[in-house]
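Quiz preparation item.
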């Protein structure tokens, strides 16, 4: 698993026409292992969301996908586990979010994003309809991962915009919230953004701020990844981009503190998948979550080939 070595330190010009002195560089890549029983052990592993719990352990929610995926199978089931070292997670024997019984997520539950609150956790996830024709962003809440209640539909795509998925949340200095999400438009994935003054209220869509780049590795598909806010730096998102044939890579982009404009963007991918050992494997690296360390390093969790999980250690340079 080798990160992109050429150009990952470069950045585009900012809005003022000055080249910002910032770079995000991968210093190490490690495989992540799950200690799991069946059926999770035989599933494909995707969408790892890792966070630090109140007990100081590292917790993970992730999507398990049956392999092979039969027509009657759900497109995903959400599992949970914990770790002391961030590389080996002991997974629970039963999933924490399952499809149904309502039709809005009967076809599968996917791509969890966890937000800790004073009362417990909020889990934003994608629910796939029973007919698999539509995916909506849903919310489950509870005091911990094992006592979750499905609450509401957060975002449901209007006609022509396909599925809403891959939630990323960020709180601005005025305590309002931004929600980045993936939506489909004209045969491509795009990154949308919405805001709310307070969690628990409705979301209002804002104008997209992350364009695709016609002559680059992210010239067709875009999907949000995790945002990290370190002291003294602009918030950085490790986003996902792809060409028209869905060769997904991970890049980085920074915003002003209110996520109203882009301040810098990497020229080349930060992470790309290694040469596949299986000719049938998908050519995908896809960011899922990030944990900021006390020393300023960033632990970026991502999936490979839609079936494996890895962790990259990323350092910011001025």
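Solution:
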């Amino acid at each position: 698993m080798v990160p992109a070595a050429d150009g990952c330190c470069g950045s585009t010009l900012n809005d003022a026409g000055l080249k910002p002195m910032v770079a995000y560089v991968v210093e190490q890549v490690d495989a992540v292992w799950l200690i799991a029983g069946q059926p999770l052990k035989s599933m494909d592993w995707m969408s790892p969301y890792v966070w630090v719990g109140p007990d100081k352990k590292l917790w993970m929610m992730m999507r398990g996908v049956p392999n092979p995926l039969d027509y009657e199978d759900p497109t995903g089931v959400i599992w949970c586990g914990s770790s002391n070292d961030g590389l080996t997670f002991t997974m629970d024997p039963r999933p924490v979010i399952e499809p149904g019984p309502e039709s809005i997520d009967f076809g599968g539950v996917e791509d969890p994003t966890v937000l800790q609150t004073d009362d417990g956790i909020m889990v934003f996830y994608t629910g796939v309809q029973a007919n698999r024709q539509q995916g909506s962003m849903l919310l489950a809440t509870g005091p911990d991962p094992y006592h979750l209640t499905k609450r509401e539909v957060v975002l449901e795509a209007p006609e022509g915009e396909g599925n809403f998925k891959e939630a990323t949340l960020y709180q601005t200095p005025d305590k309002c919230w931004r929600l980045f999400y993936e939506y489909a438009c004209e045969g491509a994935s795009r990154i949308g953004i919405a805001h709310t003054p307070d969690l628990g209220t409705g979301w209002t869509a804002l104008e997209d701020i992350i364009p695709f780049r016609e002559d680059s590795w992210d010239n067709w598909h875009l999907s949000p990844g995790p945002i990290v806010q370190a002291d003294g730096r602009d918030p950085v998102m490790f986003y996902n981009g792809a060409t028209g044939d869905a060769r997904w890579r991970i890049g980085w982009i920074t915003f002003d503190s209110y996520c109203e404009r882009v301040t810098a963007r990497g020229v080349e991918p930060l992470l790309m998948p290694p040469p596949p050992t299986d000719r049938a494997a998908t050519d995908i690296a896809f960011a899922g979550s990030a944990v900021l360390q006390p020393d300023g390093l960033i632990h970026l969790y991502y999936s490979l080939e839609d079936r494996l999980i890895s962790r990259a250690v990323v350092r910011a340079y001025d």
